[in-house]
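[job 4471] stage=fold_predict status=RUNNING
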Amino acid sequence: MENETTKPCRMCCQAIPERARKCPHCHHLQSATQAFFHNPGAQVLMGAGVALLGLVLFVLVMSNVFDHKGREFSNFKGSLKVLETRIAFSTTRQQDVVVVVGAIENGSDVSWTYPQMEIVFRDSDGKVTDAQQVQGPRLVLRKERTAFSVTVARLFPETKYVTHEVRLLDASETRRGFVD
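[job 4471] inference complete, writing C-alpha coordinates
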Protein backbone atom coordinates (compact mmCIF):
# COMPACT_ATOMS: atom_id res chain seq x y z
CA MET A 1 0.00 0.00 0.00
CA GLU A 2 1.13 3.50 -0.73
CA ASN A 3 0.11 4.96 2.64
CA GLU A 4 -2.13 4.16 5.57
CA THR A 5 -5.19 5.88 4.15
CA THR A 6 -5.49 3.58 1.13
CA LYS A 7 -6.03 -0.10 0.54
CA PRO A 8 -5.98 -2.26 -2.60
CA CYS A 9 -9.29 -2.95 -4.41
CA ARG A 10 -10.39 -6.56 -3.98
CA MET A 11 -10.97 -6.85 -7.73
CA CYS A 12 -8.54 -4.66 -9.65
CA CYS A 13 -5.87 -4.15 -6.92
CA GLN A 14 -5.77 -0.38 -7.53
CA ALA A 15 -5.22 1.83 -4.52
CA ILE A 16 -8.52 3.10 -3.14
CA PRO A 17 -9.43 5.02 0.02
CA GLU A 18 -9.44 2.76 3.06
CA ARG A 19 -13.12 3.48 3.85
CA ALA A 20 -14.33 3.10 0.24
CA ARG A 21 -17.30 0.83 -0.25
CA LYS A 22 -16.95 0.75 -4.01
CA CYS A 23 -13.82 0.97 -6.18
CA PRO A 24 -13.78 4.21 -8.23
CA HIS A 25 -11.86 2.39 -10.99
CA CYS A 26 -13.71 -0.91 -11.56
CA HIS A 27 -16.85 -0.17 -9.49
CA HIS A 28 -16.50 -3.43 -7.56
CA LEU A 29 -18.15 -3.49 -4.11
CA GLN A 30 -15.51 -4.02 -1.42
CA SER A 31 -17.63 -5.73 1.25
CA ALA A 32 -18.56 -9.38 0.65
CA THR A 33 -21.98 -8.72 2.20
CA GLN A 34 -22.62 -5.75 -0.10
CA ALA A 35 -21.42 -7.72 -3.10
CA PHE A 36 -23.77 -10.58 -2.24
CA PHE A 37 -26.84 -8.39 -1.74
CA HIS A 38 -26.18 -6.37 -4.91
CA ASN A 39 -25.75 -9.52 -7.01
CA PRO A 40 -28.84 -9.97 -9.24
CA GLY A 41 -28.72 -13.75 -8.83
CA ALA A 42 -28.73 -13.45 -5.06
CA GLN A 43 -31.61 -10.99 -5.21
CA VAL A 44 -33.69 -13.42 -7.30
CA LEU A 45 -32.85 -16.24 -4.89
CA MET A 46 -33.83 -14.15 -1.85
CA GLY A 47 -37.07 -13.02 -3.55
CA ALA A 48 -37.96 -16.62 -4.37
CA GLY A 49 -37.23 -17.64 -0.76
CA VAL A 50 -39.48 -14.89 0.62
CA ALA A 51 -42.25 -15.83 -1.85
CA LEU A 52 -41.96 -19.51 -0.89
CA LEU A 53 -42.09 -18.67 2.80
CA GLY A 54 -45.17 -16.51 2.21
CA LEU A 55 -46.85 -19.32 0.28
CA VAL A 56 -46.15 -21.83 3.04
CA LEU A 57 -47.55 -19.46 5.69
CA PHE A 58 -50.63 -18.79 3.54
CA VAL A 59 -51.29 -22.53 3.12
CA LEU A 60 -50.89 -23.14 6.86
CA VAL A 61 -53.27 -20.32 7.79
CA MET A 62 -55.88 -21.31 5.20
CA SER A 63 -55.74 -24.98 6.18
CA ASN A 64 -56.41 -23.98 9.77
CA VAL A 65 -59.29 -21.73 8.73
CA PHE A 66 -61.03 -24.07 6.31
CA ASP A 67 -60.05 -27.55 7.50
CA HIS A 68 -60.71 -27.01 11.18
CA LYS A 69 -62.65 -30.09 12.23
CA GLY A 70 -62.92 -29.28 15.90
CA ARG A 71 -64.29 -31.59 18.55
CA GLU A 72 -67.28 -33.81 17.96
CA PHE A 73 -70.54 -32.20 19.05
CA SER A 74 -71.96 -35.60 20.06
CA ASN A 75 -69.44 -35.74 22.94
CA PHE A 76 -70.79 -32.44 24.32
CA LYS A 77 -74.47 -32.72 23.39
CA GLY A 78 -75.52 -33.26 27.03
CA SER A 79 -73.79 -30.02 28.04
CA LEU A 80 -76.08 -27.92 25.85
CA LYS A 81 -79.70 -27.49 26.87
CA VAL A 82 -82.56 -25.67 25.20
CA LEU A 83 -84.42 -23.59 27.80
CA GLU A 84 -87.46 -21.34 28.03
CA THR A 85 -88.91 -21.80 24.55
CA ARG A 86 -92.20 -20.34 23.44
CA ILE A 87 -93.95 -19.86 20.12
CA ALA A 88 -95.81 -17.00 18.51
CA PHE A 89 -97.74 -16.79 15.26
CA SER A 90 -97.25 -14.09 12.67
CA THR A 91 -97.82 -13.33 9.04
CA THR A 92 -95.29 -11.94 6.61
CA ARG A 93 -96.07 -10.62 3.14
CA GLN A 94 -95.48 -14.04 1.64
CA GLN A 95 -96.74 -16.54 4.24
CA ASP A 96 -97.91 -17.43 7.71
CA VAL A 97 -95.05 -18.21 10.10
CA VAL A 98 -94.32 -19.62 13.53
CA VAL A 99 -91.66 -17.82 15.54
CA VAL A 100 -89.84 -19.89 18.17
CA VAL A 101 -88.00 -17.92 20.85
CA GLY A 102 -85.80 -19.43 23.53
CA ALA A 103 -82.36 -19.80 25.01
CA ILE A 104 -79.53 -22.32 24.79
CA GLU A 105 -77.42 -22.90 27.88
CA ASN A 106 -73.89 -24.11 27.15
CA GLY A 107 -72.38 -25.89 30.15
CA SER A 108 -69.28 -27.02 28.26
CA ASP A 109 -65.85 -25.41 27.93
CA VAL A 110 -66.31 -25.22 24.15
CA SER A 111 -67.94 -22.42 22.14
CA TRP A 112 -70.13 -23.61 19.27
CA THR A 113 -71.19 -22.01 15.99
CA TYR A 114 -74.36 -22.44 13.97
CA PRO A 115 -76.14 -25.15 15.97
CA GLN A 116 -78.62 -27.16 13.91
CA MET A 117 -81.98 -27.52 15.68
CA GLU A 118 -85.08 -29.57 15.04
CA ILE A 119 -88.43 -28.15 16.09
CA VAL A 120 -91.28 -30.65 16.46
CA PHE A 121 -94.83 -29.33 16.74
CA ARG A 122 -97.73 -31.38 18.16
CA ASP A 123 -101.48 -30.94 18.14
CA SER A 124 -103.80 -31.19 21.16
CA ASP A 125 -103.78 -35.00 20.92
CA GLY A 126 -99.98 -35.09 21.12
CA LYS A 127 -99.58 -36.14 17.49
CA VAL A 128 -96.71 -34.68 15.48
CA THR A 129 -98.15 -32.20 13.00
CA ASP A 130 -94.97 -30.52 11.74
CA ALA A 131 -91.22 -30.85 12.18
CA GLN A 132 -88.57 -28.57 10.73
CA GLN A 133 -84.82 -28.35 10.94
CA VAL A 134 -83.38 -24.86 11.30
CA GLN A 135 -80.09 -23.17 11.99
CA GLY A 136 -79.83 -21.64 15.43
CA PRO A 137 -77.83 -18.62 16.60
CA ARG A 138 -74.46 -17.88 15.01
CA LEU A 139 -72.52 -18.35 18.23
CA VAL A 140 -73.13 -20.16 21.53
CA LEU A 141 -70.38 -19.12 23.94
CA ARG A 142 -68.89 -21.53 26.44
CA LYS A 143 -70.39 -21.51 29.94
CA GLU A 144 -73.06 -18.98 28.90
CA ARG A 145 -76.72 -18.71 27.97
CA THR A 146 -77.53 -17.56 24.43
CA ALA A 147 -80.94 -16.34 23.28
CA PHE A 148 -82.28 -17.37 19.90
CA SER A 149 -85.23 -16.67 17.64
CA VAL A 150 -86.05 -18.71 14.56
CA THR A 151 -88.88 -18.33 12.10
CA VAL A 152 -90.39 -21.26 10.21
CA ALA A 153 -93.18 -21.44 7.68
CA ARG A 154 -96.55 -22.40 9.17
CA LEU A 155 -97.98 -25.15 7.01
CA PHE A 156 -101.12 -25.92 9.05
CA PRO A 157 -103.73 -23.96 11.05
CA GLU A 158 -102.62 -22.53 14.41
CA THR A 159 -104.66 -25.19 16.24
CA LYS A 160 -102.18 -27.83 15.03
CA TYR A 161 -99.32 -26.07 16.86
CA VAL A 162 -100.36 -26.64 20.48
CA THR A 163 -97.03 -27.83 21.92
CA HIS A 164 -93.51 -27.86 20.60
CA GLU A 165 -90.09 -29.30 21.38
CA VAL A 166 -86.71 -27.95 20.30
CA ARG A 167 -83.76 -30.35 20.05
CA LEU A 168 -80.14 -29.64 19.23
CA LEU A 169 -78.85 -31.92 16.47
CA ASP A 170 -75.36 -30.70 15.66
CA ALA A 171 -72.95 -27.75 15.86
CA SER A 172 -69.39 -26.87 14.90
CA GLU A 173 -66.69 -26.00 17.38
CA THR A 174 -65.58 -22.40 17.18
CA ARG A 175 -61.97 -22.04 16.01
CA ARG A 176 -59.59 -21.55 18.89
CA GLY A 177 -58.61 -17.95 19.35
CA PHE A 178 -61.70 -16.76 17.50
CA VAL A 179 -63.75 -16.20 20.65
CA ASP A 180 -61.42 -16.78 23.61
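[job 4471] summary: Residues 73-173 form a domain with the Immunoglobulin-like fold (CATH 2.60.40).
[job 4471] exit 0
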